[in-house]
């Protein structure tokens, strides 16, 4: 077993992450007496309540079996309950393996604890399944495109019975649906379940008053908060900060996240949560202040920044989401979808704009040549604009798209967040496919 507390203490106190903090080993480590964590995607926090195992999240459908095997190497106690911290597929997809284990052992099926909006999320995933597949393939760079919100066998063949890749709450008799707050007693221990909006609108964080433990789900992910995802539905940055403040007020002595390392120590936990909350609060207050002053989105995203020292914290690095995207989500939350530029309220097609810019510049080849020069000078933001104009003006030109692919590949390599890398890699692939088609490959 790994000493996860020792590792996290060393990293938090030093401020240096010179080894992975989001580990997906599939291995179980004991955190406290009767408490363990399986590091997976996502983690599964498992508590032996004395009246069966209570598991916070179940990991992904591709890793659920491995997680169950790791837990079974620790204890044979039945699964009493599965707590969905929220309805993302990497947190609920492994539930079918937990249920299968119960059947194989002759145990009673575990009850499910979930916020009331989880079922609505599952319904939305069914409705937008193809869209979710596309955006996840792009978000994860075409490598891990089945991680979030991809319910690939929810749409049955004609006449076939739907087979879910998770246990939906509405299919179970033993389901505890939480609204804003609930308490459930397992064995002789009472657990509080608190709803908070953050990455999702169906999130629960769980508090053990007697033990001073908190299971945070994705309110702590050991990355900059995923409050700005460019391709997903609304995130809630100010409510995320409020949830973190509420957790701090409880005075937890052990924090159990769904991604990243557990953290021990009341003061250490409070410091980490405060720094995360403060970063989100700063983005919200600064963005709204500029909105109230009449600034448009373009000005705001180039003005509101998080200090590099803050982004260097081991639990605030922008390796997944990033502050610029959070600013856009704040604008969307408080200001709607229009960015403030009149021409973009009812715009012309991209192809028309690209063709006109190319005509004025002297051709798409002139645009792509200039884009390459800008990229070489380090101005990749502007280079990508010109590369897109050139690509729209010459949609089938392999030379233009060769340059566009090269520029977006350079842009991908220059970015830190997985989301930006995935989208820019998607743009490069788009041009690469055009080149193949033009060359008859």
Question: How can the largest sheet be summarized?
Answer: 7 strands, mixed
Distance between the termini: 50 Å
Secondary-structure element series: HEEEEHEHHEHHEEEEEHEEHHHHHHHHH
| CATH class annotation of the largest domain | Alpha Beta
Low-confidence stretches: 142-164
Q: Number of DSSP helices?
A: 16
Taking all residues together, what is the mean pLDDT? Answer: 92
How would you describe the overall organization of this protein?
The chain is an alpha/beta fold. The protein has 2 domains: 4-275, 4-Layer Sandwich (Metallo-beta-lactamase, Chain A); 348-438, Alkyl sulfatase, dimerisation domain (Serine Threonine Protein Phosphatase 5, Tetratricopeptide repeat), CATH 1.25.40. Helix content is 45%, strand content 14%. It is built from 16 helices and 13 strands. The protein has a 7-stranded mixed β-sheet with strand order 1-2-3-4-5-6-7. The protein has a 6-stranded mixed β-sheet with strand order 8-9-10-11-12-13. α13 (364-377) packs parallel to α15. The protein is elongated and about 75 Å long. The protein starts with a helix and ends with a helix. The model is unreliable at 142-164 (pLDDT under 50).
């Amino acid at each position: 077993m790994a000493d996860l507390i020792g590792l996290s203490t060393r990293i938090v106190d030093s401020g240096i992450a010179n080894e992975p903090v989001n580990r997906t080993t599939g291995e179980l480590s004991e955190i406290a007496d009767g408490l363990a964590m399986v590091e997976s995607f996502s983690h599964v926090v498992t508590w032996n309540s004395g009246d069966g195992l209570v598991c916070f999240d179940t990991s992904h459908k591709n890793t659920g079996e491995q997680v169950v095997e790791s837990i079974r190497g620790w204890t044979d106690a039945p699964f009493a309950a599965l707590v969905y911290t929220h309805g993302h597929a990497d947190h609920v997809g492994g539930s079918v393996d937990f249920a299968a284990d119960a059947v194989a052992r002759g145990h009673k099926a575990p009850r499910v604890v979930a916020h009331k909006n989880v079922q609505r999320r599952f319904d939305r995933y069914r409705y937008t399944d193809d869209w979710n597949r596309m955006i996840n393939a792009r978000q994860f760079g075409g490598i891990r495109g089945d991680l979030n919100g991809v319910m690939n066998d929810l749409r049955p063949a004609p006449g076939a019975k739907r087979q879910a890749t998770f246990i939906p709450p509405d299919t179970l008799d033993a389901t505890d649906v939480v609204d804003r707050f609930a308490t459930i007693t397992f064995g002789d221990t009472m657990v509080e379940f608190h709803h908070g909006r953050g990455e999702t609108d169906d999130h629960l964080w769980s508090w053990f008053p007697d033990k001073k433990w908190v299971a945070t789900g994705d309110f702590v992910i050991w990355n900059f908060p995923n409050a700005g995802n460019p391709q997903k539905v609304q995130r809630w940055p100010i409510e995320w900060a409020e949830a973190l403040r509420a957790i701090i007020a409880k005075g937890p002595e052990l924090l159990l996240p769904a991604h990243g390392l557990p953290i021990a120590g009341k003061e250490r936990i409070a410091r980490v949560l405060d720094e995360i909350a403060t970063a989100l609060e700063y983005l919200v207050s600064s963005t709204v202040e500029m909105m109230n002053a009449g600034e448009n989105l373009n000005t705001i995203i180039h003005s509101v920044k998080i200090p590099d020292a803050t982004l260097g914290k081991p639990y605030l690095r922008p390796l997944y989401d990033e502050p610029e995207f959070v600013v856009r989500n704040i604008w969307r939350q408080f200001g709607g979808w229009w960015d403030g530029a009149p021409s973009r309220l009812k715009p012309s097609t991209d192809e028309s704009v690209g063709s006109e810019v190319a005509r004025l510049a002297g051709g798409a080849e002139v645009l792509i040549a200039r884009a390459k020069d800008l990229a070489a000078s380090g101005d990749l933001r502007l280079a990508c604009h010109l590369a897109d104009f050139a690509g729209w003006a010459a949609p089938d030109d392999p030379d233009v798209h060769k340059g566009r692919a090269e520029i977006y590949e350079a842009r991908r390599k220059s970015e830190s967040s997985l989301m930006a890398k995935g989208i820019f890699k998607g743009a490069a692939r788009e041009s690469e496919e055009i080149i193949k088609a033009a060359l008859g490959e």
